[in-house]
Design brief:
Alpha-D-Glucose-1,6-Bisphosphate, Chain A, domain 3, binds 2-acetamido-2-deoxy-6-O-phosphono-alpha-D-glucopyranose, 5-stranded mixed beta sheet, alpha/beta, 18 helices, 42% helix, binds zinc ion, 4 domains, 530 residues
């Protein structure tokens, strides 16, 4: 039987050397690349089981995103391009942590309880980032899938959102596009060109942008995309692999350090973007003529996109409910602006893309972004159909119909499966262009409250438990009352603490009307956690 030989290969060629336990968390498995060989082989086996259960193609992405070059990780992608179903995260952890001797038993058990028909076919798409450890890890996945009789398509180096896109395309028979890199670039560039029309400049908008590729896959994929849109947008690409991956550059560095990345020459007032190591996050920034750095993060992108979608929905007179989803990290000013100025319903959920994604799916059009720059727009099937119908309805007023057509093309520009830095960038560029805005106009929509993030190391971070989308602490007893007392002393003060899902630390977030107050508030709350 194939299972027996596949498990034999696991023990012989991909042994689990140490007893270190590892958990499938918010971002899949992620740790030092040297500890991952057996995990990747086993995830190849799991992907085959998942594929048989869903009778669909499953994706396996090898990346550690914004983490250092020495790290790596793996994530499974479900049939419609979503993250792996939550109940399977536990199966993944169990398989990764079972000893070589128990692996067969663990798999048998799973096959039995889930009633998996091993005679079914299995299809797995594999992709990886640019890390030097990634090819060998991809090989381990491919070996496992093949050993269990599954069929593999290896896409080589791709961005995480590209692999999500390939998976959904494959499983919806091309309805969403062609499951190839060419299909992906074609879909994005066609929609972008259509939205932009003949005039590449408009008002204060200049079609010129600096791109920080974090020395990862984003840079080479941006080059390919740029080739399709070069007459419409001039993208100058930096950090395209000559330096260390994510080192002093990339979206995470720029967001956390609140400063410009290394390796990108300063051009005053020029729109600049930084993506992360697998190009699923993006932040904008610029340096003004006084050399002051300005960050436009995920909250900014969310407000810009949501307001533009809203504008088109209204102009096309469609009855669609539009909402925006954030986490506790969203700047208080952005939440205020969404609710009071844009008058768009706003929801708050716990950290982690899957929580935002699920909540966004409750709206006809749900825009979600984490402040760190990960986000997208989810459009319900019924909403897409309504938009398509209006776009071709000859009986509608010209204005109304054209707005619906524009909305339809805008939806085409979105990678709805997951945050996609390249798609998000083209969306932002579309809105700025349509409004004739430069980046300072965008910044002027509201002012961020100064804020500070801190890490606190305590003996056991699990003693910290939260509720209300991580905004309130319910354990240890008394901590929330103490935080309330501290926050009360600060004008427009807000602070929360939560255990990290990716590091052994407790995170502290604070905001207030001045930077020094935000810093003091964060420090006081951090002391209360100790
Ligand atoms: C993971 C999450 C990201 C979240 C971050 C928080 C996914 C794909 N990624 O990277 O959304 O912002 O964790 O990390 O869900 P933390 O729990 O250490 O603060
Ligand atoms: Zn990433």
């Amino acid at each position: 039987e194939k299972l027996i030989s596949a498990v034999a290969i696991a023990a012989k060629t991909h042994p689990r050397k140490e007893n270190k336990s590892i958990q499938y968390g918010t971002a899949g498995f992620r740790t030092k690349a040297s500890d991952l060989d057996h995990v990747l082989y086993r995830m190849g086996l799991l992907a085959v089981l998942r594929s048989k259960v869903k009778e669909a193609t499953i994706g396996v992405m090898i990346t550690a995103s914004h983490n250092p070059e020495e790290d790596n990780g793996v994530k499974l992608i479900d049939p419609l391009g979503e993250m792996l179903e939550q109940s399977w995260e536990a199966h993944a952890s169990q398989i990764a942590n079972s000893s070589d001797e128990n692996l067969k038993g663990t798999l048998d058990e799973l096959i039995k309880t889930l009633n998996i028909d091993m005679a079914k076919d299995a299809y797995v798409f594999v992709g990886r980032d640019t890390r030097s450890s990634s090819p060998a890890l991809a090989d381990a996945v491919i070996e496992a899938v093949t050993a269990l009789g599954g069929l593999v398509q290896d896409f080589g180096i791709v961005t995480t959102p590209m692999l999500h896109y390939f998976v959904v395309c494959k499983n919806t028979n091309g309805e969403y596009g062609k499951p190839t890199p060419e299909g992906y670039f074609f879909k994005l560039s066609t929609a972008f060109k259509k939205l932009r029309g003949k005039n590449t400049s408009n008002g204060k908008y200049i079609p010129d942008i600096s791109f920080d590729g974090a020395n990862g896959v984003g840079a080479s994929k941006m080059k390919e995309l740029q080739a399709c849109i070069s007459e419409y947008l001039n993208v100058k690409i930096f950090n395209s692999g000559e330096g260390r991956l994510n080192h002093q550059c990339g979206a995470d560095f720029v967001k956390v350090q609140q400063k410009a990345p290394k390796g990108v020459p300063t051009r005053e007032n020029v729109r600049s973007v930084s993506v992360d190591g697998d190009a699923d996050r993006i932040v904008y920034y610029y340096i003004d003529k006084e050399q002051v750095f300005h960050l436009l993060d995920g909250d900014r992108i969310a407000t810009l996109l949501a307001s533009y979608f809203m504008e088109l929905v209204k102009a096309s007179c469609l009855k669609l409910n539009l909402g925006l989803v954030q986490t506790a990290y969203a700047n208080g000013s952005s939440t205020n602006y969404i609710a009071k100025t844009l008058k768009i319903p706003v929801a708050c959920v716990p950290t982690g893309v899957k929580h935002l994604h699920h909540k966004a799916q409750e709206f006809d059009i749900g825009v979600y972004f984490e402040a760190n720059g990960h986000g997208t727009v989810c459009v319900a099937k019924s909403a897409s159909e309504m938009i398509a119908q209006a776009a071709s309805d000859e009986k509608l007023e010209v204005n109304q119909r054209e707005s619906a057509q524009r909305l339809q093309t805008l939806v085409d520009l979105v990678n709805q499966t997951v945050g996609d830095a390249l798609s998000d960038m083209l969306l932002v560029e579309t809105v700025l262009h349509a409004r004739g805005w430069d980046i300072a106009d965008w910044l002027a929509t509201y002012s961020d409250l100064p804020n500070r993030q801190m890490k606190v190391t305590i003996q056991d971070r699990r003693v910290i438990q939260t509720t209300d989308a991580e905004r309130q602490c319910i354990s240890p007893p008394g901590l929330q009352e103490t935080i309330n007392e501290i926050v009360k002393m600060y004008e427009q003060g807000r602070a929360f603490v939560r255990p990290s899902g990716t590091e052994d630390v407790v995170r502290v977030y604070a905001e207030a009307t001045t930077q020094s107050n935000a810093d003091r508030l964060a420090a006081e709350v951090a002391r209360a956690v100790h």
